[in-house]
Amino acid sequence: MARILMPYDGSQSSKRALDHVIRSHADAAAVELVLINVQEPPVMFGDYLTASMVEQIDSGQRSYGDSLLQEATARLKEAGIQVRAEVIVGNIADSIVAQAVEKHCDSIVMGTRGMGSFGNLLLGSVASKVVHQADMPVTLVK
């Protein structure tokens, strides 16, 4: 059984990647999808945040990520694809690669925002970083 990791953020590109996985795996019994939503940790300045404030931020991020994953999980289950879903807090590209290794995935399928080379030059690209860091096949869906 192939195990695929797919980061999902609810964007149009991640929805297209989800469609690609569903179309590409008509034999749903042969694939397991590890679906993750990665939330960047908040940047905190100063010492004025209490532990309960930090906990509220973390809870809010996880709740938002869970709501996105529920939508995608429902579509995958409807297609008969076995899925595990999880919200991760951390650097997005690093977390995607780390989760793929930790969950023993065979490949990564992810959307790309399609910023083009100029946008990648200025801002960097999560997809580009994942492609360069991963030791497994990465499929980018535009």
TrEMBL record:
Species assigned in the record: Banduia mediterranea
Residue ranges annotated for the UspA domain, each copy included: 3-142
Entry protein name: Universal stress protein
Family named by the database record: Belongs to the universal stress protein A family.
Residue ranges crossing the lipid bilayer per the database entry: none
InterPro entries reported in the protein's UniProt record: Rossmann-like_a/b/a_fold (IPR014729), Universal_stress_UspA (IPR006015), UspA (IPR006016)
CDD domains, per database record: USP-like (cd00293)
Superkingdom, taxonomy of origin: Bacteria
